[in-house]
Amino acid sequence: MRFCIYGGGAVGLGLASFLIKAGAEIDIIARQQTVDALKKDGLIRTGIFGDFSALPRQFDCFSGLNEIQNQNYDFILVCTKSFDSQTAAGDIFDHKHLLGRDGKIVLFQNGWGNAEKFLRYFEPSQVYSARVITGFARPAPNRVDITVHAEAIHIGSLFGSDVTPLLQLCDLITKGGIDCRITDSIEKDLWAKLLYNCLLNPLGAILAVPYGKLAEADYTRKLMNALATEIFAVMKAAGYSAHWNSADDFLEVFYARLVPDTARHKSSTLQDIAAGKQTEIDALNGAVIALAEKYNIETPCNRTVYNLVKFMELRT
User: Running along the chain, 316 residues long, what does each successive block of 10 average in pLDDT?
Assistant: First the structure.
């Protein structure tokens, strides 16, 4: 099977490392600086899943799909930031000849609303979603460091499509060293991940601390509790659900397991701010606010942390 990793950031390089280790044929689409580093020194992975390196001859990399000629991908794995979803969907559609007749697109992205952008170009049966609760950092253009890991990767369809085509993908990722499973509840998984991110990412960036610090003080706990309560009210109004019946049920698991398992991780929002980059806050708390407005629900806590992160973006 041949895969295209569309987006050579931390998640994309991490995912590529597992697939390469499993023996898959991989092409990586990344920015030119990353392409140059990968071609010169290969791909290096460090962290809790052990060290791994792939020589430049073990994969190909390009700065754009237009550089690829005759190729048929079984899967295009989209690992871009959520704010690039529309551009990515259009670009892949413009080069849809690279996607094999039965080729699939899997979105390895944060936030809510990414899949809908791809439905403007592709059939629901072609678009799948993944939930990842693993901490990836990229200390150098060709290097990824995995700092924390909470649960297996889950992949499924938001649109009730057949998940059988995902079996080989999950098997390869698992063979490469990180557990990957098919799920029939990906919507709940994505909302669970959104809850996790909405509570931790903005506050981690605003206060410049890792996740674990946020759970140590009553002040930040109270704020995270309020964020969760607002999000559950929005989910209920919109007809969505996670794996818990209430904010209290979620928070019990959040503080007992999810935060401790990822306590040392610094949020991607904090990493983006530090690097002077745009954050994904619009697809996180911003998505909650947009949905809340549709159903006339007040979300003052989500709006406050959203506005603070947007101000921080202006300063980068």
Answer: 96 98 97 98 97 97 94 96 96 94 94 95 97 93 94 96 96 98 96 96 96 96 98 97 96 95 90 92 97 97 98 87
Q: Which of 193, 266, 277, 310 is catalytic?
A: 193
**Domain coordinates of the chain in residue numbers?**
2-184, 188-314
Are the CB atoms for 227 and 305 separated by under 8 Å? yes
Tell me how long the chain is: 316
Rounded to whole angstroms, the Cα distance separating 244 from 274 reads 34
CATH topology of domain 2-184: Rossmann fold (3.40.50)
Distance separating alpha carbons of residues 24 and 247, to the nearest angstrom? 41
Distance CA 282, CA 261 (A): 26
Instruction: Say if CB 13 and CB 144 are below 8 A apart.
Output: yes
Global pTM value: 0.93
Environment class of 57 (CB within 10 Å of its CB; exposed 0-12, middle 13-18, buried 19+): exposed
117 is catalytic: no
Give the up-direction half-sphere exposure of residue 186: CA atoms within 13 A in the CB hemisphere.
Answer: 29
- Cβ contact 289:268 at 8 Å: no
Q: Is the dihedral of CA 265, 271, 274, 278 positive or negative?
A: negative
Q: Which residues of 126-145 are buried (b: 16+ CB within 10 A; e: fewer)?
A: bbbbbbbbbbbbbeebbbbb
The domain 188-314: what is its CATH number? 1.10.1040.10
